[in-house]
UniProtKB/TrEMBL annotation:
PROSITE patterns to which the protein is assigned, alphabetical: RH1
Protein name: RH1 domain-containing protein
Region of interest (Disordered), residue spans: 128-158
Origin organism lineage: Eukaryota, Metazoa, Ecdysozoa, Arthropoda, Hexapoda
Bias (Basic and acidic residues): 128-141
Amino acid sequence: MPFQLDLFSEMEECDQDVSVVDVYDIASEIGKEFEKIIDTHGTEAVTSLMPKVINALEHLERLATKNDRENTTVQELRARIMHLENDKIEKAEGRLRFEKELEQIEEHWRQESRDLLSMVTRLQDENRRLSSSLAERDGMRGDGSGPGGGEGDSLDGSGMSGDWELLCRLRQTVDRQREAVRSRDNEILAKNSEIEALQEQVERLSMVGRELRRKHHSAQAQVRGLVDERADFLAQLQDQQREIGRLRQRLGIAQKENEDLTESL
């Protein structure tokens, strides 16, 4: 039958992503077919079949509505996961750049430390040489507490103080950079946890979607069964119409024979 073939074709097309509009289209086609049956055979011909069809269509509509909501939610979650994945990649790239910069800073700090240690060693040697020279000169003068000794101590103390201040500043800078790296690591871990939670939610929604598709297939099977039942019902009606035609023909013959007998009497 054309309607049956068209209905199955339409149901196969919306097999995976049936929508409420598709259900309304199917209901409209079924309604047209019911009107044809009623016009031909009267309302009694569809009285028992119509509630079953309506119930199946309402069930299919509920499934389609729920399927639409689940599809929308899954699409939103996928978009959010994609955004988080991109954010994760950007954070990872930023972390790599930051670590590279930190390595450069640490290397610069190590080089500065080596240079400063070399400078400190050189200054200490120079201070010892100057102190020895001053001591010899003061010994020659017979005054070991002259102004020269105080000047040597001042040179030694001021040089060491400036070097250690620079070392402390470098260490503080490195500590700040390391703390920033730890903060980035914690942020990336938090993003990873959020992505994993969203992925679990998507998997759960996918399972719900599979269950909805299973129920949808069941509803389709129910509709197909009703369509088959309708086809059988129409076939029975046609058989009854043919039987009624034969009975009317026999009745006509019997009436003709009765009239002939009446006239002969």
